[in-house]
Amino acid sequence: MASGARKSSSLFVSGGSENMAPAPVQVDLDLGTRLSGENVLQLRQNLSARQMNFDLDQLLEDYKTFRDVDQAKVSLEKERVEIADQMSTLIKDKSKTSEEVSEEKASLTKRGKHVREQFKVISQARWEAEEKVMLRALNLPADLHTDTPEDGDRVLDSTEGTVTSPVYLLGELAELEMCLIQRVTAVMHGHDLLQIASPEIFRSVVAEGCGFDPANCEQVTMFAACSNADEATDICRGFTRLAWDVTRELGLPSRLVTVSPPSLLPSESLRTEVQVWAPSLHRYLPVGRVSQHGDYVSRRLMCRQHPGGDFVHMVSGLAMDVTTILVALLEHSYPQVHRHSVLLDNS
């Protein structure tokens, strides 16, 4: 997976950019923590496990440059304040002659002008250094969850399937699709999940903040925002059981798999997939998924529990890919299905 520096971002706009509106969010990538000490080694291992082509050494070098320039700017700001204080003290000092005051005032004015010129230069350098760091750092992935396998996908559960009868549809295939949708929806409602209609068009800043290419947004059919990592893990396991149960009850050869790092999106720290066997392709196809994102998304979109509070931990998922399930049902010769079938009756 290639991951070079971006040319631009909806999440970050440099303070030195002319004729550009400021970014709608204040991104917190926690670089001070992720790019220091033992965390650098952990990040290298993360990138290696995901097989991402990311130049971490260049980012570390750019970040060091940014910190040096930022410190230089802080020093100049401090010097500006000192000059202003000295000027104020000089004006109030009645013990000096007017000539002494004029001489020292001229010296402070000259020094202040020099500092202002340096400040302009260092501010521009800081903006450029910050932009270089941020556009590269926005490609960093989420930290891997401890349950994510490093040595290939891990099968958590599987079923051989019980479908043997020929296909016989009394209605249109769309009716079967509606049966599946109603069944999955009923299961979700039965577990106190609220149904919402998501927008068809997303602002690019939201899509990018979620770790997606704005041109390829995916519909999220299950979602939860949690107060901490432990709660997110519990919700993730619950969502996984739901997605697995609604597919397994169809009787298709299927399995539950924890996906290895190379297949994860940058925003995912853990993903579990429900997969069904496709005889014609001689492989399993994903029909459901549950992903744990940690605080990756919330740090990019300023999603906190309350103003000034901790960032929320997010879990998302797809309960069922109905299109793929329909193909699997047909290919595996699903038993007679019609509008009064068990799928619809049980929903």
UniProtKB/TrEMBL annotation:
Classification via InterPro entries: aa-tRNA-synth_II/BPL/LPL (IPR045864), Ser-tRNA-ligase_type_1 (IPR002317), SerRS_1_N_sf (IPR042103), tRNA-bd_arm (IPR010978)
> Any signal peptide, and if so, which residues?
none
Q: What is this protein called?
A: Seryl-tRNA synthetase
Organism encoding this protein: Batillaria attramentaria
